[in-house]
């Protein structure tokens, strides 16, 4: 595609991004059968894990910063817009019941606020100053770690947040799928898996979103393990907020100690469903 006279700067940027290019193998996807469409999407999705594998060194650095921030009494922030922002919200929320993470220690900031989780507010990503204000409002400091989520790597909201976070002394990282990542200028750690063109040009909720979800899950899970919130491969810090989770807590106690269902139930009730304490009491007895 040639450059036209009078094109906006955004148009020029988008033309350079891998995630915006048309995939040569899917130009006739609208003429295929359902199974053919599914096979193509599946084949492309398989490439994501291999792309993530190539950036594990950078992911390792991010996990170390994640752990440092939480150990020092700081916080971790995920900052994103659209799909990227929603993925950050999901990961931060899941750390509370899964690992007993205290509320507010890992925070997700999505452009447009909570409403943007359920309704598109895509224009909210266009202002760098709003991203800066979010960092100031939360009192970001050198204790914290701010992770920008932007498939394109050019989201103004994310760039503003990363720039201000750095000015305030926080360590920063960016997760993107484009090597020409403008936000990388303000990131101490760059995590950029090259997943290639999307099956539907520009639809970054596909491979780019899968890569972001995979990376966030890896990073947060590894950090929770390093922080001692997992024993062996058991979730000993889970919060029993539902009947299913209470039953899971019993199963974890049974697996960890070898006691039966009734003894696990009795000890969990005695400790207020503190899984780790129940395990310790059974083992010490």
Our count of helices gives: 10
Highest CATH level, the class of the largest domain: Alpha Beta
**Proportion of residues in extended strands:** 5-15%
The CATH superfamily of the largest domain is Glucose-6-phosphate isomerase like protein, domain 1
What's the number of extended β-strand segments?
5
Compute the average pLDDT. Answer: 93
Explain what you see.
The protein has 285 residues and is an alpha/beta fold. The protein is 49% helix and 8% strand. It folds into 2 domains: 50-226, 3-Layer(aba) Sandwich (Rossmann fold), CATH 3.40.50.10490; 243-284. Helix 2 crosses helix 7 and helix 8 (243-257) runs parallel beside helix 10 (275-284). The longest helix has 20 residues, at 34-53. It is globular. The N and C termini lie far apart (73 Å). The model has no long low-confidence stretch (mean pLDDT 93).
């Amino acid at each position: 595609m040639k450059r036209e006279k009078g094109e906006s700067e955004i148009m020029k940027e988008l033309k350079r991004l891998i995630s915006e290019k048309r995939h040569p193998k899917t130009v006739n996807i609208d003429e295929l059968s359902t199974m053919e469409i599914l096979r193509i999407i599946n084949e492309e999705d398989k490439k994501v894990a291999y792309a993530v594998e190539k950036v594990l060194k950078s992911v390792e650095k991010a996990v170390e910063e994640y752990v440092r921030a939480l150990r020092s009494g700081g916080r971790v922030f995920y900052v994103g817009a659209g799909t990227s922002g929603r993925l950050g919200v999901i990961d931060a929320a899941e750390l509370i019941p899964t690992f007993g993470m205290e509320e507010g220690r890992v925070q997700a900031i999505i452009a447009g606020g909570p409403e943007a989780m359920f309704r598109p507010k895509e224009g909210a990503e266009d202002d760098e100053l709003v991203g800066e204000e979010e960092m100031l409002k939360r009192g970001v400091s050198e204790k914290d770690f701010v992770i920008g989520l932007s498939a394109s790597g050019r989201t103004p909201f994310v760039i503003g947040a990363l720039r201000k976070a750095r000015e305030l002394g926080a360590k920063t990282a960016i997760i993107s799928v484009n090597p020409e990542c403008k936000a990388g200028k303000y990131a101490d750690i760059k995590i950029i898996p090259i997943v290639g063109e999307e099956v539907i040009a520009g639809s970054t909720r596909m491979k780019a979103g899968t890569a972001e979800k995979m990376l966030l899950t890896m990073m947060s899970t590894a950090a929770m393990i390093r922080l001692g919130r997992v024993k062996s491969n058991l979730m000993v810090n889970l919060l029993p907020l539902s009947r299913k989770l209470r039953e899971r807590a019993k199963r974890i106690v049974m697996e960890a100690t070898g006691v039966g269902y009734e003894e696990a139930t009795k000890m969990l009730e005695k400790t207020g469903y503190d899984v780790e304490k129940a395990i310790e009491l059974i083992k010490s007895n």
